[in-house]
Structure formats: structure tokens, C-alpha cells
């Protein structure tokens, strides 16, 4: 079973992702972080295979956390979750920093699971 960490300051979005992940036969949600700093800590404690991380969060945002995670763990697989448009400079930066893919909000289970399976 592939372990996924959900990182989002919105409890509604986090619960939606957790439900999609846990209802699949292939993935299990190992935790929920509310910002990038928590994600970095939980990457060490939970050792997820994939991190689904919101781009915009208070405290430490997703891009800052991605920069840190990429340096600390070269094998980390991060999928950014965002409501930004597909042409955003931040999306380009996320992919350049090592994000494996982007999930756009609002999202459906089929899209989330397809992207996770492709990793």
C-alpha cells in the first residue's frame, strides 16, 4: 500500500483528499499537516511515499517546503495541490523545484488517483 501525506491548511480540502486516498485499494493516508513546516516534520516521522501539498498556506507555504524537502530527501515525491491557474509562475517554479505533478482544485477522485498512480 502506497503511503500518502496530505498537506493543506483547509480541513475541507484535506478531508476530501484523505477520503479519496483511503477509499482506494492502492493508497492510504498516513497523516495531515496544516503547513509546510509540519509537512517536513511528518516526512521524517511518517515516511510517506507521496506528499500531496497545497501551494498556498500560512506559516510555511508549499513552495518553501518543497525546496527544503527536495534538499533533505532526493527521493521525495511531491504533488502540488492548487487553485492557481495552469499558467501561473508558481506552478512553473514548483515543477522546476521537483514537484512531480499538479492537482488543480476543484478536483475529482478520478484525477487524483490517476496522478498518484502515474508516480
In brief, what are we looking at here?
By secondary structure, this protein is α/β, with parallel strands linked by helices. It contains five helices and five strands, in the order βαβαβαβαβα.
Index terms:
single chain, 119 residues, alpha/beta, Rossmann fold, 5-stranded parallel sheet, 5 strands, 45% helix, 23% strand, globular
Task: Describe it.
This protein has a single domain, classed as Rossmann fold. The chain has 5 helices and 5 strands, in the order E-H-E-H-E-H-E-H-E-H. It has helices spanning about 10-25, 35-45, 60-70, 90-95, 110-119, and strands at about 1-5, 25-35, 50-55, 80, 100-105. Strands 2-1-3-4-5 form a 5-stranded parallel sheet, sandwiched between helices. Helix 1 (about 10-25) links the parallel strand 1 (about 1-5) and strand 2. Helix 2 packs parallel to helix 3 (about 60-70). The longest helix is centred in the first third of the chain and has 13 residues, at about 10-25. The mean pLDDT is about 95.
Amino acid at each position: 500500500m502506497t503511503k500518502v501525506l496530505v498537506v493543506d491548511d483547509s480541513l475541507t480540502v484535506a478531508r476530501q483528499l484523505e477520503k479519496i486516498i483511503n477509499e482506494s485499494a492502492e493508497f492510504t493516508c498516513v497523516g495531515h499537516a496544516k503547513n509546510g513546516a509540519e509537512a517536513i516534520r511528518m516526512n521524517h516521522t511518517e515516511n510517506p511515499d507521496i506528499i500531496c501539498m497545497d501551494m498556498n498556506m500560512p506559516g510555511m507555504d508549499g513552495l518553501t517546503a518543497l525546496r527544503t524537502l527536495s534538499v533533505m530527501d532526493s527521493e521525495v515525491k511531491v504533488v502540488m495541490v492548487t487553485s492557481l491557474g495552469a499558467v501561473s509562475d508558481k506552478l512553473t517554479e514548483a515543477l522546476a523545484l521537483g514537484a512531480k505533478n499538479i492537482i488543480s482544485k476543484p478536483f475529482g477522485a478520478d484525477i487524483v488517483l490517476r496522478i498518484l498512480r502515474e508516480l
